[in-house]
Design brief:
- Helix 1 runs parallel beside helix 6 (146-175) and helix 14 runs antiparallel to helix 15.
- This protein has helices at 21-51, 56-68, 71-84, 87-108, 112-139, 146-175, 180-204, 229-233, 239-253, 258-269, 276-301, 303-322, 328-353, 362-391, 393-415, 421-427.
- By secondary structure, the chain is an all-alpha fold.
- The protein starts with 20 loop residues before the first helix and ends in a 7-residue tail after the last helix.
- The chain crosses the membrane at residues 15-32, 39-59, 158-179, 185-205, 244-265, 271-292, 304-321, 327-353, 374-393, 399-417.
Length: 434
């Protein structure tokens, strides 16, 4: 018997206790890549705000570009991967573009337009790789274990995210003062590590094979068996995909970005600039510890409640940042809750989405939902930067907390009355789009 709600259907915990080699190999690639990317992410606010003296509005634009720019190529990359059945190849191009972009930061110097262009290029690479990677995880994993699989992958990913800021902190300590030359050395090291991640992808990851043979409907594939552009464009006619995309957009509006969170913690708690990367370490450690347990919990009790619970944790973080709280204990609590928010939402949202999308266009569907979230993130980062400039950080953060409440309520209404992906498949076995 199936519950008539998206993400609320319980699965048999005996369905399996392990994840496959594809998930582990992709986790290893993400681990290495995140060492590289988090080296940059952990120091980028420090570099832009303290070294280059950017104000909140300009930093908000840069921070928004850092995630929002991925929306430009997510759907295109997802469609190309579905059309060509080369998810690994498309993901590899994305990883490669992001690696080269690290050298672009060295070339850009103190040029704000140059840095913006490099950030866009780096995030375009992420936009290309994320949906094909998540589609490979979904294709290689039984539905009953998707929460576990994404949890394990995100745990390995966050292990790299945990190590990256430590590497950055070590380099900053070794090089001394946080000068432009110090950052150039850090960006070059990041490029070398990212290149190793690209090599690891092509040596260890095996795609699960073509999915077009599982597309019997002409509405999904063309006469040659390839995925049609009309089928991809028609994804928003699938009620579950449309609701998930709208929900992801609403939830994305409530996210202000790591850089803002860490800058407020640093200023509010009087943390020295040299220790700025440690804040990301705390978040990523909590993410690392909680990602797999939250993924397994989502498989047991339903994925939607876990996602919404993650945004409740984000709401509490905003309250801590905007209130009169001080001391190391409150800082640790904020970082643990922030890491818990990521653990409960990042992979679990993709595990919630994957089964709702017909297999032949699954990569495109995942990219569509991710794009909705990325566009919203761009808007929220710019909006938060403007609000910070006009009314100050505490007031802007309280406003973000209100947005979280609205987004959680709207998401619960959007998704709680929808059929489960499995029930939908049983009633529409051809897997047609539309």
């Amino acid at each position: 018997m199936y519950l008539s709600t998206i993400g609320l259907r319980r699965v048999d915990p005996r369905a399996g206790a392990a994840v496959g080699p594809t998930v582990l190999a992709l986790g290893a690639v993400s681990l290495v890549t995140d060492v590289s990317s988090e080296m940059v992410t952990a120091v980028l606010p420090l570099y832009l705000v303290l070294t280059l003296q950017m104000g909140p509005v300009v930093y908000g634009v840069m921070d928004g570009l850092y995630t929002g720019a991925t929306a430009l190529l997510r759907v295109v990359g997802g469609y190309v991967a579905d059309r060509t059945d080369r998810r690994k190849g498309v993901a590899g191009v994305g990883y490669g573009v992001s690696a080269v972009a690290k050298l672009g930061l060295v070339a850009a110097g103190a040029s704000v337009p140059g840095i913006g262009a490099v950030i866009v290029a780096d995030r375009l690479g992420k936009g290309l790789r994320t949906a094909p990677r998540d589609a490979m995880i979904t294709a290689a994993t039984p539905e009953a274990r998707l929460g576990r699989a994404f949890g394990v992958h995100r745990a390995m990913d966050s292990a790299g995210a945990f190590a990256g800021p430590l590497v950055a902190l070590g380099l900053l300590t070794l090089m001394g003062a946080a000068t432009p030359r110090t950052f150039d050395a850090l960006f070059t090291t990041s490029f070398c590590i990212a290149s190793a991640g690209v090599l690891l992808l092509f040596l260890t990851v095996r795609d699960s094979g073509p999915v077009r043979s599982r597309a019997p409907s002409a509405r999904v594939s063309g006469g040659d068996g390839t995925v049609s552009l009309g089928a991809a464009a028609g994804l928003l006619r699938v009620a579950a995909v449309r609701r998930l995309t709208c929900a992801a957009f609403l939830l994305g509006l409530s996210t202000v970005g790591d850089g803002f969170v860490y800058l407020m913690l640093m200023r509010g708690q009087g943390i020295a600039a040299a220790w700025f990367p440690v804040l990301a370490v705390g978040t990523n450690l909590a993410y690392l510890v909680l990602a797999a347990p939250f993924g397994m919990l989502a498989d047991r009790i339903g994925r939607l409640p876990v996602v919404l619970g993650g945004y409740v944790a984000l709401f509490v973080v905003y309250l801590l940042l905007s209130g009169p709280f001080g001391g190391m204990g409150w800082t640790v609590l904020a970082l643990v809750l922030y890491g818990g928010y990521y653990a409960a939402t990042d992979g679990v949202l993709m595990a919630l989405t994957g089964p709702a999308v017909p297999a032949p266009v699954r990569t495109t569907g995942l990219a569509l939902v991710q794009s909705g979230q990325a566009v919203a993130y761009l808007l929220s980062s710019v909006g938060f930067g403007v609000a910070w400039s006009l009314w100050g950080a505490p007031t802007a953060t309280r406003g973000a907390a209100v947005v979280v409440v609205v987004a959680v309520g709207a998401t619960a209404l959007l998704l709680s009355g929808s059929r489960s992906p499995t029930e939908t498949t049983r009633q529409n076995p051809a897997g047609e789009v539309g």
